[in-house]
Amino acid sequence: MLRQVWLVPALPLAGFVVCLFAGTRLGRYAGWLASALVVASFGIGLGVFSDLVSLPDASRHVVRHLYEWIAVGGFRVAVDLRVDPLSMTMALVVTGVGAIIHVYSIGYMDGDPRYGRFFAYMNLFVFFMLTLVLAENFLLLYVGWEGVGLCSYLLIGFWHERPAAASAAKKAFVVTRIGDTFMLVGIALIFLRLGSLDFTAVLRIPCGPGQHCPPAITTDTGVSTVIALLLFAGAIGKSAQVPLHVWLPDAMEGPTPVSALIHAATMVTAGVYLVARTHVLFEVSGVALTVVLVVGLVTALYAATVALAQDDFKRVLAWSTISQLGFMFTALGLRAYWAAIFLLVTHAFYKALLFLSAGSVMHALDGETDLKKMGGLRRTMPITAVVCSIGALALAGIPPFAGFFSKDDVLAVANQSGHALAWLIALVAAFFSALYMARLVFLAFFGEERTERYAHEAPPVMTVPLGLLAVGAAFGGFLGANETRGLLQTFLAPVLGKVREPTQGLSGPALALISVGVAALAIAVGWLVYGSGRIDWVALRVRLSSLHRFLARGWYVDDAYAAVLVSPAKAGSAFLAYVVDARLVDGLVNASGQLVRWLASVGRRVQTGFVRNYALAILLGALVLLVYVGLRI
Amino acid sequence: MRTPIAYFLVASAALFTIGSVGVLVRRNALVIFMSVELQLNAVNLALVAFSRMHGSLDGQVLAFFSMVVAAAEVVVGLAIIVSVYRRRRSADVDDVNLLKW
Predict the structure, then answer these.
(1) What 3 state SS string does A444-478 have?
(2) What does A138-177 look like in DSSP terms, one character per residue?
(3) Closest CA to A368 of A301, A453, A286, A269
(4) Contacts of B96 in chain A (CB under 8 A)
(5) Nearest by Cα to A427 from A406, A411, A405
(6) Whole-complex ipTM
(7) Gap from B27 CA to chain A (nearest CA, Å)
(8) Of A605, A610, A616, the CB nearest to B97
(9) What is d(CA A622, CA A614) in angstroms, rounded to the nearest whole number?
(10) Which DSSP helix (H) or strand (E) runs through A574?
(11) Which of A14, A393, A552, A630 has its CA 20 to 30 A from that of A42?
């Protein structure tokens, strides 16, 4: 099946074309067709995966050449697909979780006037994400990178009749574009310094002393630092890290399956994938790794605190996604790439599950997302309550659910690599993560009912995907349960390096005990405040209103951007539009018109309409000519 | 003894000036037309005189051309004057001043 790897991205692309042009004619079948194609893509991905596994460890990277794309002088870029453990892991997550979300959308988007269009965009998104992860060179990766940006724009603004959705789509596009621009510069720099954009040529693995390494990279840490930081800037934008995180919470304006697909499971993980893929550059630089670590830690802690104060079901999850991505970057910064990918995989399961549960709740409550107006839903929506709790427990890091293993790995690496401060910060962030998940579940599903509406369980086409994801969220952690010799770790080792045995810090079981203790404590606190009914959390919020507002508005980061960047830019644009353009440029144009009019109003008096005046003019003209000729002779 | 060319030229210039003044000062279209013919014939006279001076026939041939053209022009011009007169009951050129600012 290795030779058929091109089918993996080609099937969703075909689905996009069909749904785009025949979407309305297909009607309800558009959803089934789109889902079937992604499922088929997942099946082929599994076939490729099994072929890859049958190869010996050392030769597990196959490049499938499709065609020459650009060939200008020494600049050669081909459309090549790379099959190696990392790209296949990503491709299977994208198609697997993507397929489940597609099926769920069949029920969720039922009755939408642009049903076919929705699935066309979803398929296009899967196609671009697969291009991104399967690309063999930076330029093809960049095509996928921009493609998912485009699709996120289209899908966030899917209900573009709503101004909030339209502006959220624009914001996502513009903010991620800032990072993309840096990344493009980085790619150009790679070609300039290394003469190639192919991963195989640029990122020789392993690249230790005595082996053949790319010359410029190994000798010049300055250049590799610049390149790594430029690439990381792209990752910051796409993965919504501080300071370019502002687009993700707003992106919740899109349909909920979109949030699950793009803003939890797959697209935002592109940044993590990029850093893991190019980790050689980051390692040579060293400085870049520290930057990744700091950004990851800051984001993990910051977003977790903000998630505590959100009242919107989906916004809690959005901030939680940012925080979890921060954990992944923390792992990357600690050179534990496999831990980042492990967290990425498990996070894809439980975050997609949580988002789809949110969609199920919204489906039942006519689009209500305010946690204050929910409560007691476990009685009317038992399935959703159970799967959402599984997702929450997985995120909080309670064993044996998936998040426990992956998050514990990140915390353990932080401790055992001697980064005690990083470990403490991550532990605090983990505490807050468990707390906001407990708050979410207790407010939405427990306590007395605060909604007037009649809640009901979703149809099977939505609950079955929820069940599948719940299985993943519950048991996905066993992929890497053994810290050093887990399935995922050994599989990824050829690309991301072997897991290092811990040399210092606390022992594994002790660390696991600590992180479970922290999570359990957070859940207990959450129960006490939001679930037990003994504390009036509404009154508590009023007493701490300034702190609450600070957190709810995301530490006023958006407001600061508005004040520092957006307002001056708007004022400058207004100056250019209403003064420079309207007065100066238009003034010049109008003035030249006025001048012609004035000259004409004077000059037209010459045309008297009297024949004799013309005759006189002819005569005078003839005389002048005569005199002139006479003088010349 | 041949008559000096200056006589012919002076006569031609005098005729041309009379014609020019007539075109400029008269208001009746027919009179203006006659003045124009006078100018044309003044030029014809000059052409013939120069032709004689140079001893070639070029000037005389050109004079015939101008006569033919003048005849054609008279036909067109008189037709216009007649049609203007029919419409306006006047042959005064100052009455026909619509084509102006």
Answers:
(1) HHCCCCCCCCCCCCCCHHHHHHHHHHHHHHHHHHH
(2) HHHHHHHHHHHHHHHHHHHTTTTTSHHHHHHHHHHHHHHH
(3) A453
(4) 611
(5) A411
(6) 0.82
(7) 8
(8) A610
(9) 12
(10) helix A567-574
(11) A393
User: Could you tell me which residues are beta bridge partners of residue A63?
Assistant: A82
| Contact (CB<8Å) B24/A608 | no
Report yes or no: A498 and A406 within 8 Å, Cβ to Cβ: no
A292 CB-contact burial (10 Å; exposed 0-12 / middle 13-18 / buried 19+):
buried
CA distance B78 to chain A (A): 16
φ, ψ for residue A75 (rounded to 5)? -95, 105
Cβ distance of A605 and B20 shorter than 8 Å: no
Between A61 and A210, the higher pLDDT residue: A61
| Distances in whole angstroms, Cα of residue A474 to Cα of each of A464, A478, B52 | 15, 9, 124
Of B93, B98, B99, the CB nearest to A612: B93
Digit-coded pLDDT (tens) for A114-146:
889 999 999 999 999 999 999 999 999 999 999
Query: In Å, how far are A633, B19, B46, B54 from B43, measured between CA atoms?
Result: 22, 11, 5, 16
* Angle at A346 (CA atoms; ends A341, A351), nearest 5 degrees: 120
User: Of A19, A53, A110, A58, which Cα lies nearest the Cα of A458?
Assistant: A110
Name the residue in chain A with its Cα closest to that of B100: A609
Distance from CA of residue A530 to its chain's centroid? 31
Whether residues A607 and B101 touch (CB distance < 8 A) is answered with yes
Tell me if A607 and B94 make a contact (CB, 8 A cut-off): no
Residue located via tokens 């003088």: A631
pLDDT given for residue A483 in this prediction? 65
For A622, which residue in chain B has the nearest alpha carbon?
B20
Nearest alpha carbon to residue A356 among A526, A470, A472:
A470
Q: Pick the residue of B18, B24, B35 with the most A CBs within 10 A to test the interface with A by mutation.
A: B24
- Per-residue pLDDT tens over the stretch A551-604: 888 888 888 998 998 899 999 999 999 999 999 999 999 999 999 999 999 988
Domains contained in chain B, CATH given:
28-91 (1.10.287.3510)
Are B51 and B70 spatial neighbours (Cβ–Cβ below 8 Å)? no
Taking the CA of residue A596 and the nearest CA in chain B, the distance in Å comes to: 16
How far apart (Å, rounded) are the C-alpha atoms in residues A252 and A240? 13
Q: Which residues of A touch B100 (CB under 8 A)?
A: 607-609
Which of A607, A615, A616 has the CB atom closest to B100's CB atom?
A: A607
| Residues A75, A80, A81, A86, CA torsion sign | negative
The nearest CA of chain B is from the CA of A595 a distance in Å of 18
- pTM given for the model: 0.80
Partners of residue A610 in chain B, C-beta under 8 Å: 93-94, 97
Residue B96 φ then ψ, to 5°: -100, 75
Are the beta carbons of B100 and A611 separated by less than 8 Å? no
Shortest CA gap A599–chain B (Å): 13
Residue A303 and residue A633: Cα distance in Å, rounded?
95
